[in-house]
């Protein structure tokens, strides 16, 4: 497995990413990050609401855009759900109705943003951090419009082990859908360590915000974001 730093450094534009990993003593950590190229994409931040949700919100008073502004993480008594779009709320509601994680992640679709058709990435973990279910709704590499749905169940991570999904993969010239998943190693021992490692590995001119939190303690998330910029418009 490659270090988290090396995996991200080898990707000129990771887009949005979800990570589940462990520290040296086996403590589970979760992370969500955003990078963006356009002014509208960069005019966002991560914040915790009074309801205890982690949301991707505009930095200005602009109108809500369901592809750019959404609940990125929600926690209940039994589950933590995080990801890169409005499907996070859908999955959390399904879990609240008693559905198992595999069923809760089923039936999701990629984003309607041609030509890249951004994957929808979602992670479900129990609040003790013992196991996680990753879901990715992806567009076919060919001409099919039907969604490819990948579900990955991960448990018993070795110390400093982890699984990473990113929406995009780029060599600096072209942008494509990211790899299905990557198994990584991290040197982090605390939430702050992981946030430092993640933030420094993201492309400085593209990074927008990142949050690291432990299952069962979303309200204690460590959050970092780029300096707030003013109102702007444009594509994602």
UniProtKB/TrEMBL annotation:
It holds the Pfam family IMP_cyclohyd. One of its GO terms (molecular function) is IMP cyclohydrolase activity. One of its GO terms (biological process) is IMP biosynthetic process. Residues 13-211 form the Inosine monophosphate cyclohydrolase-like domain. InterPro entries: IMP_cyclohydrolase-like, IMP_cyclohydrolase-like_sf. This is Inosine monophosphate cyclohydrolase-like domain-containing protein. It comes from Streptomyces mangrovisoli.
């Amino acid at each position: 497995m490659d270090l988290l730093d090396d995996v991200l450094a080898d990707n000129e534009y990771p887009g949005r990413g979800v990570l589940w990993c462990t520290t040296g003593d086996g403590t589970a950590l979760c992370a969500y990050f955003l990078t963006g190229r356009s002014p509208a994409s960069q005019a966002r931040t991560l914040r915790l609401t009074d309801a205890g949700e982690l949301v991707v919100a505009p930095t200005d008073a602009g109108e809500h855009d369901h592809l750019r502004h959404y609940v990125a993480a929600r926690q209940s008594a039994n589950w933590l759900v995080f990801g890169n779009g409005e499907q996070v709320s859908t999955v959390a509601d399904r879990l609240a109705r008693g559905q198992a994680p595999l069923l809760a992640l089923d039936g999701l679709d990629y984003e309607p943003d041609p030509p890249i058709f951004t994957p929808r990435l979602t992670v479900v973990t129990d609040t003790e951090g013992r196991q996680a279910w990753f879901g990715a709704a992806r567009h076919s590499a060919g001409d099919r419009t039907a969604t490819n749905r990948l579900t990955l169940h991960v448990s018993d991570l070795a110390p400093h082990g982890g699984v990473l999904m990113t929406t995009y993969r780029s060599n600096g010239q072209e942008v494509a859908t990211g790899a299905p998943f990557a198994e990584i190693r991290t040197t982090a021992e605390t939430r702050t360590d992981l946030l430092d490692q993640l933030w420094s590995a993201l492309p400085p001119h593209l990074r927008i915000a990142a949050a690291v939190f432990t299952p069962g303690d979303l309200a204690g998330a460590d959050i970092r974001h780029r300096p707030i910029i003013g109102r702007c418009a444009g594509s994602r």
